[in-house]
Amino acid sequence: MLRVAVPNKGSLSESATAILTEAGYKQRRTTKDLALTDTANEVEFYYLRPRDIAVYVGEGTLDVGISGRDLVLDSHADDDILMELGFGGSTFRFAGRPGVANSVKDLAGKRIATSFAGILSDHLAENGVEASVVKLDGAVESAVQLGVADVIADVVETGTTLRQAGLEVFGEPILTSEAVLITRHGVDQPAGLQQLVRRLQGVLVARNYVMMDYDIRAESVEAANALTPGLESPTVSPLHREGWVAVRVMVLRADAQKIMDQLWDVGARAILTTDIHAARI
Ligand SMILES: Nc1ncnc2c1ncn2[C@@H]1O[C@H](COP(=O)(O)OP(=O)(O)OP(=O)(O)O)[C@@H](O)[C@H]1O
Ligand SMILES: O=P(O)(O)OC[C@H]1O[C@H](OP(=O)(O)OP(=O)(O)O)[C@H](O)[C@@H]1O
Ligand SMILES: [Mg+2]
User: What is the ipTM of this complex?
Assistant: First the structure.
């Protein structure tokens, strides 16, 4: 059985369970359950902290897991990132009281609080900056007010927590993160992993694309195809009406309205979009 680690709580948990459910896997009924066996798909799910998932998978104790790119890098575990999952987006940034620093170069000799000491130390070393790292478990934004640090390095999503603490980001983002699927580096892919990856990719396609149908005069089909090249190639079928064809093609959901306007301008009519419920590409 494929052994899969899933975040048990926190920012990644709900979306991780949702994407697995959408991919046709059984998920735990209550947040108290520690594990669940999906016999039909021959997969065992283990619900763990995403920071620990990077370690379990890196050690090879579990075959594959969902964690955050920042947590994987921070752990220095022996993981490979197989795919990005399109949720749990955040940036990892420096922040401090206004004017305290403008870039990483200003941090020499300063005290920096973080719960990602691995990422922070790597970043300071890359920039040749010597500073002292104050390792905290959470609520890092309070460290400046409480006097244990001069600046912080933390996860920023909306920036609300920083504003509430009277802090501002400075310097370039240290990294951008999102939820990722990981396996142990350098091992043969276990049975069932390819199926999991294909199913998750299918969910991402269904979420990110819509199906678009339209009718157009045959002489304009090349102009329309330039706007909607599709993943492979559009399906073009004859219409009963002489000189017209029907086109069916996948387009990015985010671009759909703009493309419908552009298709209209090159003569397409009866332009429809429909949701895709599942896909294998
Ligand atoms: N607003 C956010 N706050 C914290 N982490 C976030 C946020 N948005 C996305 N993430 C990502 O979630 C992962 C952190 O997972 P974790 O389970 O520790 O979340 P958490 O919400 O901080 O949980 P908790 O603080 O309750 O332990 C990281 O990969 C991080 O980049
Ligand atoms: O930019 P925002 O949308 O405000 O989100 C970022 C904040 O959310 C997380 O804190 P969390 O609630 O997980 O508490 P923690 O610091 O104790 O982990 C993270 O550590 C930041 O503090
Ligand atoms: Mg947190």
Answer: 0.96
